[in-house]
Design goal:
Layout: H1 2-12, H2 20-86, H3 104-118, E1 124-131, E2 137-140, E3 143-146, H4 150-161, E4 166-169, E5 181-186, E6 195-201, H5 203-211, E7 220-225, E8 231-233, H6 241-251, E9 258-264, E10 267-278, E11 281-290, H7 291-294, H8 296-339, H9 349-373, H10 375-387, H11 396-405, E12 413-423, H12 437-455, E13 458-465, E14 468-476, H13 481-503, E15 506-511, H14 521-532, E16 543-546, H15 547-557, H16 564-575, H17 579-595, H18 600-620, H19 625-629, H20 634-640, H21 644-666, H22 669-685, H23 692-698, H24 703-714, H25 718-736, H26 741-747, H27 752-763, H28 767-773
Parallel strand pairs: 15-16
Antiparallel strand pairs: 1-2, 1-6, 2-3, 4-5, 5-6, 7-8, 7-11, 9-10, 10-11, 12-14, 12-15, 13-14
Helix pairs in contact: 2-8, 8-9, 12-13, 14-15, 16-17, 16-18, 17-21, 18-20, 18-21, 22-24, 23-24, 26-27
């Protein structure tokens, strides 16, 4: 190897390194980074400035229109509010006959109403009431006064003579000429009104609303009627020269709503005007704002565009230098590594890299050849991951590509999974030793691989260990399913016969359904594993299970039978220290389970439930199951056992023997016998008056000792056990007889009233409800 490398190094040492590559990269990147930025900056400055100024003008005009609409809405709301008050029952025809001197309560109600009306709208300053009957008077929230001035009376009566029921006016007696008020006649809708409600608008608040029409601090806003009877300015009551000139300029425009530019005193204003209709009269608003205030953002944006462009240019220069260094440094280091001397200069760096690349390609081919030798191990690992579902995150296409890499055709192919479960290892004592399970599984996998690959082209045998072997087959999709099933049955029979003869072990084979989608392969193996749990433990030693039919039939016909009586007898035998009887009862328990279905699944589930009952009994007896049985997972150990005899031996060795030994060391047999006698006595005399003290005296012990022993042995205290016996017998009498409730209570040793309470406490319903539910 060194003889090949040395001439190569001698050949590349003649080149000398220089910085020409860095200079080229710097100039190129600087051009790429700077020119587009400059073009974009100039374009934005030229185009965006004009467009932005026009957009700001349009935005300003739209803003004025929106705020004018808001003013219109507030005035309309004020009109609607006042019109509603005109129809208030307090202002009906009865008001003509009211005596302000004697009808005190009605007068106070009018005061309150006027006070409420003043607060009904933020623009209102004052609300007054004028009545011409029985005598002309005006009334506000502060009081009322009779009118004697003929001129004032005539002014107020002119409001009644107006042909409109509601109207705006600035001719209110005692008010300034620039004060506007809303007048409505009362009663509302009457053809002969006898009074009016006058709502005077607060000038300051109206002025604040007008200022919103000009969003800038500079400028002016005018509001006036179409006939010029009154006007209101945000700068004061008297029109300035600028405002008078503005109105003259406005008169030159005939459009209802528009905007124009107006120049006054070397200042250009953007003027927006429009009209709003108020109760048949035309109101005009004119808003003038300096153009410099509107376009101020354009000037700021222009400056910022220039600053950002210059900053971008400087940043482009800096980044170009930085990026050029970052690009050239790896090339410099790479050339230094290839030449072995950084001071050596070369005329063409990439020519040197190209030659070295060819050299590395040759070495890559060598490594690829070595990788081909490891391909079988990689293939085995891939199919193991596929079968176990670790590749479900991949797409269908990705899995197909990887299978093609390992020589598997996936187009128009159907797939089937077979799961082999070997049993009978415990019967091979003398031939195999404990710990040879993996060796036996490996031998069986080799037998299966040899026979299946003789018959099929695409076969993968997967060793799951623990006597479990999986086989994945792929066949052309055009083959008929009936032919394939017959062919598979013949193959399975041959495999079972061969394994029986060579290894002397029994074989159960689960055959999955056929699929065309490779992503469903993990589901096939999972279904096959589930189907193995339904092998018939009492049937033939060798079995073939079709997963689709087996899982469907077992799910639809699964038996719910569980021998609870034997469960309790087994627990009782273990508590009594009767180990042999407990083992015999477990054997009988397994036979009973077989009546509900002799499959491995049924028996294993029943045995797991029995294990849970025994662990619970240990906990009730005051034992810690973790300390009693150790930190091992008993349920996991039991789930791994496939043969009934092995399950029975495991129970005797790992569970019953340990439990009984602990019970013997903990429990006083004499005390256990006393408790058993008490239990028998309770079952025979539950209908009589019984107590803990009387039972303790009867059997020659103290109440404290009997209570503690009863709780330790039976898991419940004395009174709860007695109550449970009585309740169970009462339930039987309620269901099976027509005895009255009080007769049932007396039959089980309770008073009628107490029986109802205790029965509802334990059962959640009354005895009568229980009887109705069970009829």
């Amino acid at each position: 190897m060194s003889g090949i490398v040395k001439p190569w190094l001698e050949m590349i040492r003649k080149y000398k390194y220089n910085s020409r590559f860095f200079r080229k990269i710097l100039v190129l990147i600087l051009l790429i980074a700077s020119i587009p930025g400059l073009i974009i900056g100039v374009s934005i400055y030229g185009i965006a400035t004009n467009n932005l100024e026009e957009a700001l003008q349009r935005q300003h005009q739209n803003q004025i229109r929106n705020r004018a609409a808001n003013l219109d809405e507030q005035l309309a709301y004020l009109e609607m509010t006042l019109s509603h008050w005109a129809f208030d029952p307090k202002f009906d025809d009865n008001l003509k006959h009211i005596s302000f001197s004697y009808q005190f309560e009605q007068v106070q109600e009018l005061y309150r109403t006027l006070l409420v009306m003043e607060g009904a709208h933020p623009l209102l300053e004052k609300v007054q009431l004028y009545l011409d009957a029985p005598r002309p008077l005006t009334m506000t929230k502060d009081g009322y006064a009779y009118l004697s001035d003929a001129a004032k009376i005539e002014s107020y009566d002119s409001f009644l003579a107006n042909n409109k029921s509601m109207f705006w006016t600035n001719d209110i007696p005692g008010e300034a000429a620039d004060t506007i008020s809303l007048v409505t006649k009362i009663p509302g809708g009457s053809s002969q009104p006898f009074g009016v409600i006058i709502a005077t608008v607060n000038k300051e608040k109206l002025n604040q609303v007008l200022k919103t029409l000009n969003p800038y601090e500079e400028g002016v806003t005018l509001l006036m009627t179409g006939d010029g009877s009154w006007h209101l300015s945000t700068n004061g009551n008297t029109l300035s020269k600028m405002e008078q000139s503005l109105l003259q300029e406005y008169d030159k425009h005939s459009a209802t709503t528009d905007s124009f530019l107006y120049e006054y005193d070397q200042t250009t204003y953007s003027v927006s005007y429009g009209q709003i209709s108020r109760l048949g009269t035309k109101w005009i608003y004119v808003s003038a704002a300096p153009l410099t205030s509107i376009t101020a953002p354009v000037i700021a944006v222009s400056k910022w565009i220039l600053i950002v462009s210059l900053t971008g240019l400087m940043l482009a220069l800096l980044l170009s230098w930085f990026v050029s260094r970052r690009i050239s440094l790896p090339v410099e280091r790479l050339v230094g590594l290839l030449t072995g001397d950084k001071t050596v200069e070369v005329s063409d760096e990439f020519d040197l890299i190209e030659k070295q690349w060819k050299h590395l390609s040759k070495e890559s081919e060598t490594l690829k050849h070595k990788l081909q030798e490891q391909l079988p191990a990689l293939q085995e690992g891939f199919f193991l991951q596929l079968a176990q579902g670790y590749l479900l995150s991949l797409q269908e296409k990705d899995i197909q590509e990887r299978m093609k890499y390992y020589g598997w055709e996936t187009e128009d192919r159907k797939f089937v999974a077979l799961m082999f479960q070997l049993t009978g290892f415990s019967n091979l004592e003398g031939r195999f030793l404990h710990g040879d399970e993996d060796l036996v599984t490996f031998a069986a996998a080799n037998i299966i691989s040899e026979l299946t690959k003789k018959q099929y082209e695409q076969v993968e045998v997967i060793n799951f260990h623990n006597f479990s072997i999986g086989v994945l087959l792929s066949l052309p999709g055009e083959h008929p399913s009936s032919w394939l099933e017959d062919d598979l049955d013949a193959l399975c029979a041959e495999l079972m016969h061969t394994i029986n003869q060579i290894l002397n072990m029994q074989v159960t084979i689960a055959v999955s359904r056929w699929i065309y989608n490779v992503k469903q392969i993990p589901h096939l193996f999972e279904e096959a594993k589930q189907a193995l749990a339904y092998r018939d433990l009492l049937g033939e030693d060798n079995q073939i299970i079709r997963t689709e039919r087996t899982l469907r039939s077992n799910l639809s016909e699964a038996s719910n039978y569980y021998p609870f009586t034997l469960d309790k007898d087994i627990v009782a035998a273990i508590r009594n220290g009767q180990e042999t009887d407990a083992v015999d009862l477990i054997k009988q328990f397994m036979d009973e389970l077989s009546t509900g279905g002799s499959t491995e699944f049924v028996i294993q589930q029943g045995m797991l439930q029995l294990l849970g009952s025994i662990r619970y009994a240990a906990m009730q007896s005051g034992m810690n199951p973790v300390q009693l049985f150790g930190s091992v997972n008993l349920f996991d150990q039991l789930a791994q056992i496939k043969e009934p005899d092995e399950m029975l031996r495991w129970f005797q060795r790992k569970v019953i023997g340990v439990f009984v030994q602990e019970m013997i060391s903990r429990q006083n047999i004499h005390l256990k016998q006393i408790v058993d006698k008490v239990v028998v006595y309770l079952r025979e005399n539950y209908m009589n008056a019984l107590s803990l003290e009387s039972c303790a005296d009867l059997f020659g012990t103290s109440p404290y000792t009997l209570s503690r022993a009863f709780k330790q042995i039976n898991g419940v205290n004395f009174i709860d056990y007695l109550t449970n016996i009585r309740i169970q017998n009462a339930k039987a009498l309620l269901k099976e007889t027509e005895m009255k409730i009080n007769e049932v209570a007396e039959s089980v040793g309770y008073q009628h009233s107490y029986f109802n309470r205790i029965f509802k406490k334990y059962e959640g319903i009354t005895p009568s409800q229980f009887r109705e539910l069970n009829r």
